[in-house]
Amino acid sequence: MQCWQSPGTLGGKEFGTSLFPPSFFPHRIPGRLNDRRTPLGELNWIFTAITDTIAWNVLPRDLFQKLFRQDLLVASLFRNFLLAERIMRSYNCTPVSSPRLPPTYMHAMWQAWDLAVDICLSQLPTIIEEGTAFRHSPFFAEQLTAFQVWLTMGVENRNPPEQLPIVLQVLLSQVHRLRALDLLGRFLDLGPWAVSLALSVGIFPYVLKLLQSSARELRPLLVFIWAKILAVDSAEHRTMTAFILAVIVNNYNTGQEACLQGNLIAICLEQLNDPHPLLRQWVAICLGRIWQNFDSARWCGVRDSAHEKLYSLLSDPIPEVRCAAVFALGTFVGNSAERTDHSTTIDHNVAMMLAQLINDGSPMVRKELVVALSHLVVQYESNFCTVALQFMEEEKNYPLPSPAAPEGGSLTPVRDGPCTPRLRSVSSYGNIRAVTTARNLNKSLQNLSLNEESGSSVAFSPGNLSTSSSASSTLGSPENEEYILSFETIDKMRRVSSYSSLNSLIGVSFNSVYTQIWRVLLHLAADPYPDVSDLAMKVLNSIAYKATVNARPQRILDTSSLTQSAPASPTNKGMHIHQVGGSPPTTSTSSSSLTNDVTKQPVSRDITSVRPANVGNMGVQYTPHSHQFPRTRKMFDKGPEQTTDDADDTVGHKSFISATVQTGFCDWSAKYFAQPVMKIPEEHDLESQIRKEREWRFLRNARVRKQAQKIIQKGISRLDDQIFLNRNPGVPSVVKFHPFTPCIAVADKDSICFWDWEKGEKLDYFHNGNPRYTRITAMEYLNGQDCSLLLTATGNSAHLPLLTWGVIYIPCLCFLLGAGMVVDWEQETGLLMTSGDVRIIRIWDTDREMKVQDIPTGADSCVTSLSCDSHRSLIVAGLGDGSIRVFDRRMALSECRVMTYREHTAWVVKAYLQKHPEGNIMSVSVNGDVRFFDPRMPESMKVLQIVKGLTALDIHPQANLFACGSMNQFTAIYNGNGELINNIKYYDGFMGQRVGAISCLAFHPHWPHLAVGSNDYYISVYSVEKRIR
Fold first, then answer.
1. Which residues, 6+ apart, have CB-to-CB distance to 602 below 8 Å?
2. Are 995 and 1016 within 8 A, CB to CB?
3. Measured between alpha carbons, how far is 994 from 1009 in angstroms, rounded to an integer?
4. Percentage of the chain surpassing pLDDT 70?
5. Residue 826's beta-bridge partner residues?
6. 768 pLDDT above the threshold of 60
7. Residue ranges of the alpha helices (H) in 249-304?
8. Most buried residue, 26, 76, 205, 206, by CB count within 10 Å?
């Protein structure tokens, strides 16, 4: 018990009995415990520093905070316990504490304590007998030196400095304070992890107290240290505060009024440009919720130009922030208060800014965009009804062009039957997902009678509509005859509605806003992402119903019937997208509650996603990154009932928008705060299953590379040993090896089949969900070294090329012969290069889900092949006119085309840029001329002539090989010198059956394997002789 209450006395006795006579027992150490200038006070000070250091280095962080920082009495008791354990262990006694502590009696810092006690006790005879001055211990100076050495020697892959708690104690000493602050500032400058360690020691109250010091020499260091602490700690705390405030004001009028009085809008606006993306996201959400259905807050935002300040977030690099900004602007224009000319002008400006996001790379943002624009439709219903009626009249007056002869490339993709993507795992290749869901086309508007003379109204039942988050959509199904606007009708509207007649309708400028927003909604209704399309279809059909059945506005036939007055002011009743057919659903707002007539079971739309990061339920968020993170959002429950003077159909109208035209983005974002933030992520936990699986994959990858390289180094004399042959469900159009697993993806026109080429088994086959009239033209494996994703590109000369993970819009040109969409993927940077039947090369950042750059090709021909090198920032494009063009994407658009080769006279089948610093360009045309270029030279270095009539070609990235397929039913393999290695004309095991015309081929990225697809549906894989393998 004495060692727990008086550690200095007993500790001194333990070391002093053999050094001094009985008259000099250590209890005679002069001084006071609370005076650090005396021997006893200094010894107690050193004891505190050493025990704190031992505890901080040995105990878990939360236990250290609980025992040594929360209560002074408890901290003193446990410091004494550490010394008691050391002394009692020497007498074969084991002290016990609660909570139980790990052993500390062998820690190296106890040697420093022994030295400090020895130095102190050695001075006692002269101090007591002769009265000499006490010489202070060099302990703290030496520990600061050790800390300085740790800083000097580097910090990479090293344990934290054990002297950190001692540095904290040194701040109490005026003699060493300046030096300690300097070293502490250098430590905090190492990064946020250093600040977190310092805060765990307990630096915060010490620095806060020193800030009140009058010593001028300390102020620069203290300000620097304080800034480092705030830079790490403040953003997180402010984010949590924004989240809490957003919850307080969510559909709670009292909370909105209190926060408005507390000047919350101005405070939030000051944080919009904060570098912390999560803070920007929640500040925008908080703003969107405070003025939602609260006119006073909206006008406060108008006075502070809140909507204009939010515009900057619409181009934010983080998709979640862009989505939050769209949400905030959507609720800004969705306020149901009476509109004035001023507020109408503001609404129009906001709408036109939102319309610029129509081609945003994130489906989540586009989905929130539909919801935001639906608020505008709600407020200006009569104007949109007029525009909708005029569009439908124009659609009726023009014949639908034949798909075979599209108009100028403006044709919009329309969903094709029998199915669009639904997601399911591939049996033995579970990281690849594809989307497939049953979906058919509506009957055309020509089957509906919209003429006034008929006097009949179109039956329109919400029972056949499914919510936007439903995986099974009845949009366009044969049973859904009641839909006012089908996909075909909307597609036709976009293509045949002439501006001339619409301009005759538009007598004043503000009407043009409604026309443009209507066109934006038409565009979004044709979005290849199902949830975006579903939402836009609901908005459009609601207005179509109001225009033709319910409201029945006067039809405008020509300009003579127009008045030049402003449109009627919007209703102040909070009009909602219409749900026809009586009362709103009585059950929940899930998809089943909205399918009263046609019940469909929901199908999962979960897509493997890899941004740890960073987004919402559009139903799904499909991003090509490594980590899988579910991003499904549930629909909100329908809002509170609102009483109006309208008929029952208006009540249904209100319920329809509250139940269906929402995304759940805010609720999904809030789940971030429900997750444990102090827990180490599984991918960083060395013992976690995820970490072990990843390590296994990396070891497997290294083994594959090594074994494949050994075979290639032996030399390849022939490549005709058929190791796989099977009949594909469709004619192969694109084939792609997985780089590390025995899996091969084979695409036909609109489906994908996975094969195990080692076992000869089919793993899976599913529909890709192409837009109508398109075909799969390219495939790429993303993150092939880890959790792989398969990217597919579709398109032809008359359609917008699309990507299944999201939407990538490229303006389309019409050529006689289209290449479809061509892509190239940079794994190192996460950039995706895309082009095709267009005059640009568009670069997408898949992490930010944004377009990075549009590089003009400077040609009137389509791009047939792309190849890039991330280390040199070069892009090589082969074109249909035979030219090879080299671009440096680091340069300005007017100067980025650094080289053009025009030596080919025909369509370029393949242009390949070797991936090393001195890599050359290899290109082949359909005429069979193979040319090698040095990107620095204006002419080719070497020309080879091989067979003509090429239909496919690929180049092995590791071996000095290239293979070409011919329409003459054979495959030829050549080495880099143009020497023929062998031809493949017949299948093995089929009595010499001749191969069909070659439709596609591809080399394995590592193994000397060649996959060949032919028009007779067969897919085969060839390799070197078995004895070499």
1. 470, 471, 472, 590, 591, 592
2. yes
3. 21
4. 71
5. 831
6. yes
7. 253-261, 264-270, 277-290, 295-303
8. 26
With contact defined as beta carbons under 8 Å apart, do 413 and 595 qualify?
Answer: no
pLDDT at 704 over 90: yes
Q: Which residues contact 362 (CB under 8 A, 6 or more apart)?
A: 319, 322, 323, 615, 621, 806, 849, 850
pTM beyond 0.85, yes or no: no
CB 661 within 8 A of CB 538: yes
Peptide bond into 1008 cis (omega under 30): no
The tokens for 990 are: 């089929």
Neighbouring C-alpha atoms within 13 Å toward the C-beta of 486: 23
Q: Which of 532-536, 601-605, 876-880 has the lowest mean pLDDT?
A: 601-605
Q: What is the pLDDT of residues 18-65, one digit of tens each?
A: 333 333 445 668 877 777 788 888 888 889 889 988 988 888 888 888
- CA dist., res. 1009 & res. 720, Å (int): 9
**Collapsing DSSP states into helix, strand and coil, what is residue 724?**
strand
Using DSSP's 3-state secondary structure scheme, residue 1015 falls into coil
Q: What tokens appear for 639 in the block?
A: 């809002």
Element (H, E) at 207: helix 203-210
Q: What is the pLDDT of residues 660-688, one digit of tens each?
A: 578 889 999 999 888 776 566 777 777 78
Mean of pLDDT values over 934-954 = 88
Q: Identify which of 288, 282, 281 has the alpha carbon closest to the alpha carbon of residue 251.
A: 288
Query: How far, in Å, CA of 359 to CA of 695, rounded?
Result: 39
Residues 6+ apart with CB under 8 A from 320: 277, 281, 364, 613, 614, 615, 616, 669
Task: For residue 477, count other CB atoms closer than 10 A to its CB.
Answer: 20
DSSP 415: B
Q: Tell me: cis bond preceding 811? Omega within 30 of 0 counts.
A: no
The predicted structure's pLDDT at residue 494: 59
C-beta of residue 57 within 8 angstroms of C-beta of residue 76: no
Pairing between β-strand 776-782 and β-strand 761-767 as defined by DSSP bridges? unpaired
User: Distance between CA 786 and CA 608 in Å, rounded?
Assistant: 13
pLDDT in tens, 441-486: 232 222 322 233 333 333 322 223 233 333 323 233 323 435 567 6
DSSP state of 431: E
Mean pLDDT of 1000-1011: 94
Report how far residue 878's alpha carbon sits from residue 868's, in angstroms, rounded to the nearest whole number: 12
Tell me the average pLDDT across 338-356: 90
Distance CA 598, CA 472 (A): 11
Place of tokens 């040194």: 170
Rounded to 5, what percent of the chain is helix, strand, coil?
Answer: 40, 15, 45
Type and span of the H or E element at 520? helix 509-525
| Start-to-end C-alpha separation, the chain | 76
In the chain, the amino acid numbered 577 is I
Q: Give Cα separations from 1015 to 5, 431, 748 (angstroms).
A: 91, 29, 10
Task: Say whether the peptide bond before residue 418 is cis (omega within 30 degrees of 0).
Answer: yes
